[in-house]
Amino acid sequence: MGVPGDIGVKLRPFEELVREHGPVVLRVCRALLDPVAADDAWSETFLSAMQAYPRLPPDSNVRGWLVTIAHHKAVDQVRASTRRPVPTDELPETAFIDRPPPDDGLRAAVDALPPKQRLAVIYRYFADLSYREIGEVLGCSQPAARRNAADGIATLRRRHRSDPPGGHEAGSHRADLQRASDQKAGNQREGAPT
User: Fold this and answer.
1) Residue 77, C-beta contacts closer than 8 angstroms, at least 6 positions apart
2) What is the Cα 70 distance to its own chain's centre?
3) Secondary structure of the chain in HEC code, one letter for each residue
4) pLDDT string in tens for the chain (194-residue length)
5) 88, 2, 87, 95: which is closest to 53 by C-alpha?
6) CA 124/CA 189 separation, integer angstroms
7) What is the third-level CATH fold of 104-184?
8) Domain boundaries, the chain
9) What CATH number is given for 14-83 in this structure?
């Protein structure tokens, strides 16, 4: 097997390189990584080297070349390990605040809104996006996003005002909508009447 362009130059069989330099490459990998990751890096080193070996110039320092590949593979292993989840015996504290269970009636009412109003209400009151961000997501202007959210809230209020007065669900929906509106307006009153 010759180097492309160098007719008549034969390369040593790749297996000889693995036998000769394999222990050195493994020592390098183990010096940089834990034993399991070192074994993986060693394997990946020789897989990469096998692919590139036919293009290696005949006067190259093979040991240095293999150690350089091993170093790069070890760095890849370290980077990959920082991206993997780490198993734990205990679950971490969540950033979520305990909230009452979702109101299925309110969810159904929001789902019944026209698409742009529904999305504007969800993005504004559930995801806390600004009107500018909502406009970008929906592909409309900031004023149009504000109008869609306002129309959606107005539609929800109208629909819930037509619910039977004194009904638990109707009052619950109105209170939820009022709280969402009050929070966006900077009013922190809880349970304000509609």
Assistant:
1) 33, 37, 40, 41
2) 29
3) CCCCCCCCCCCCCHHHHHHHHHHHHHHHHHHHCCHHHHHHHHHHHHHHHHHHHHHCCCCCCHHHHHHHHHHHHHHHHHHHHHHCCCCCCCCCCCCCCCCCCCCHHHHHHHHCCCHHHHHHHHHHHHCCCCHHHHHHHHCCCHHHHHHHHHHHHHHHHHHHHCCCCCCHHHHHHHHHHHHHHHHHCCCCCCCCCC
4) 444 445 556 788 999 999 999 998 998 888 888 889 999 999 999 999 999 999 999 888 898 899 889 888 988 988 887 777 777 787 767 665 555 666 667 778 888 999 899 889 888 887 777 898 888 888 899 999 999 999 999 999 988 777 654 444 444 555 566 566 565 555 444 444 44
5) 2
6) 19
7) Arc Repressor Mutant, subunit A (1.10.10)
8) 14-83, 104-184
9) 1.10.1740.10
Instruction: Specify the length of the chain in residues.
Output: 194
